[in-house]
Amino acid sequence: MSMRISERLVAFAGLTIALAACGSAPEPPRERIACALDGAKDFAEVCLLERDGPRFSIHRPDGGFRRFEPVEGQGIRSIDGAYAAIVVPRANGFSELAIEGDRYLVQVARPRDSSDQVGGE
To answer: Less Cβ around it within 10 Å: N or C end of the chain?
Structure first.
């Protein structure tokens, strides 16, 4: 026996609804940051920063992204490509990250190390 087209559409719609209900986790919060892409001279607040603990991702408006992590004593390293990030400290706790013709202005939290004191000691 074969299914009619209307039966197939109903089955497809039910499957689509069931899949949409599965695993729809909220997206992590993102903050808008200034970036100068593809060799641009001026910065514009068109990129999005997404933090995941000390690691962070920067999303470009064209859908591309880069992932970074702070490394104690070494600054910041790119964790998704072959190119190294060049980090230039700026005022007010900001750093300029430069990688492959793109530049980003971010506030980077330094990783905690074992000498950090907890509890006011």
So the answer is: N
